Amino acid sequence: MYLDSLLEHLDYTCLQGDTHTLVTDLVYDSRKANKGSVFVCISGTVTDGHDYIPQVIEKGATAIVIEKDIDLPKDVTVIRVNNARRALAFMSAAYFGHPASKLTTIGITGTKGKTTSAYMVKSILESTGIRTGLIGTIETIIGDEVIPANNTTPESYIIQQTFAKMVDAGIKCVVMEASSQGFLHFRIDGFVFDYGVFTNLGYDHIGDKEHKDFDDYLRCKRQLFRQCKMGLINIDDKYANDIMEGHTCKIETFGFSENADIRATDVKLVHEPGYLGVSYGIRGLMNFDVAIDIPGKFNVLNSLCAIAICRHFDVSENDIIEALKEIKVRGRVELVPINRNYSVMIDYAHNAMSLESLLTTIKEYNPKRIVCVFGCGGNRSKDRRYLMGEISSKMADLTIVTSDNPRFEEPEDIVNDIITGVKKAPGRYIKITDRREAIKYCIDNAEEGDVIIIAGKGHEDYQEIKGVKHHMDDRELVMSAINS
Fold first, then answer.
1. d(Cα 357, Cα 297) in Å, to the nearest integer?
2. Which end of the chain is more exposed for a tag (fewer CB within 10 A), N or C?
3. Arch. (CATH architecture) of 3-95
């Protein structure tokens, strides 16, 4: 492969050497450089690829792609671009043969609902024989291969490599969680989605290591609808019009609104011992009734989103109905099967918007008490801690403040920040920093008719402390407490 073929869709300047240079590999990790490589210098928050140029040249790299002024090394081709991350995305797409063009690509963006909606889409399409891959918060799925996720949206090279593997595996469609961080860091550049979906938008991911402000967060979410052919928008969300601003795609809408192209009507909550579900009617571009074994109005919207997408694949109404009956998503309003007179639910709600939506949903089922157990991750915005504490104190009957992933912060400091928010509302609370002990307390003191919500970690099976991930699974903690 020649370097100029990797650069074909980029604006660049060749500072020295020849763009028609044969390259053997595309790398952005200096440790993987070898003879004949082209090395893209990514400027990260921790390390800067430009600092490793001598090492990659020593390993035999043929060309380097830079975005900063440097002293030009000898005997290599040097390409200057404005943004190396964006360059990596386009070069990766070319390197793997533009695999997205050989798949039907679906991107789902939003503050919450991405994961559940993605699994629903995959489940419905696969039930009709359309082999569908998935790239998301929990895992990447390529046929029978399951790869645990490190980021909601992987680096652009990994995305294109994954697309290529899917093509080789005979997969026809891929549904992908398109995070704001993915757009911020140009991981999702280099191709156009066939379908883009917007679920909702709330105040989240604002901070030193994430988005500088809400406008930046909104801008990144909006990008999907300038990079897809068909956009499907939750018209009920207050930011729907902002998301559509400047869109270049066709638009369809879904929601509860009479103005939605596909709308949900006659929502009925189903509450039985150890079971929470919902049924509703679909009207507009499709007309039939469905039931799902996942509680809450927000899951009506998640499933409606999936249905709006699958309509474009000519999936039959009966196939949609049957597929939705079977859907379970790990860590998303996941009921733990405990066979008791109270319910235990595990959910990934780790920001104020998600927690408020979850608690609102469960209150609609009129449980005897809502007991909410949660912590907040370290090295993230403190505002999230205050807001989540206040919301839980307002809406739950009892809040158990505990530890989540403290990362490089002290758990006690995080817990105390949460309690600052808790004290802004009148709810009862208990501080139990050890998560295992917090969950055991809830089980030992559960009352008939309770719904115990264990929030924050969802699908995760670890606790991250000082850079080390220690095994910890909320499901196992629940069962251990029950059996002790």
1. 9
2. C
3. 3-Layer(aba) Sandwich (3.40)
473-477, long-range: CB < 8 A, 24+ apart: 474/346, 474/435, 474/439, 475/336, 475/346, 477/435, 477/436, 477/439, 477/440
Q: 99-325 in CATH: which number?
A: 3.40.1190.10
CA distance 296 to 283: 19
Q: How many CB atoms lie within 10 A of CB 125?
A: 24
Write the DSSP assignment of 380-415 as a string of letters: S-HHHHHHHHHHHHHH-SEEEE--S--BTS-HHHHH
Q: What pLDDT, on a 0 to 100 scale, did the predictor assign at position 207?
A: 56
Cα–Cα distance measured from residue 54 to residue 250, given in angstroms and rounded to the nearest whole number? 48
What share of residues in the chain are helix, strand, coil (percent, to 5)? 35, 25, 40
Query: Tens of pLDDT along 437-468?
Result: 999 999 999 999 999 999 999 999 999 999 99
**Paired strand residues for 400:** 373, 430
What are 278-303's pLDDT values in tens digits? 999 999 999 999 999 888 888 999 99
**pLDDT (tens digit, 9 = 90+) per residue, 144-186?**
999 988 877 899 999 999 999 999 999 999 999 998 888 888 9
Residue 150 CB contacts under 8 Å (≥ 6 apart), including other chains: none
What is the end-to-end Cα distance of the chain in Å, rounded? Answer: 62
pLDDT score recorded for residue 272: 77
Note the pLDDT tens digit of each residue in 197-253.
999 987 655 555 566 677 888 888 899 999 999 999 999 999 999 999 999 999 999
- CATH for 334-483 is 3.90.190.20
The answer to whether 226 touches 251, Cβ cutoff 8 Å, is: no
Containing 452, the helix (H) or strand (E) segment is strand 451-455
Return the residue matching tokens 């949206």. Answer: 153
The three-state secondary structure class of 346 is strand
DSSP helix/strand/coil, 334: strand
Other beta carbons within 10 Å of 206: 17
How many C-beta atoms surround the C-beta of residue 470 within 10 A?
10
Is 316 exposed, middle or buried (CB count within 10 Å of its CB: 0-12, 13-18, 19+)? exposed
Closest CA to 28 of 2, 72, 76, 67: 67
Domain ranges across the chain: 3-95, 99-325, 334-483
pTM: 0.83
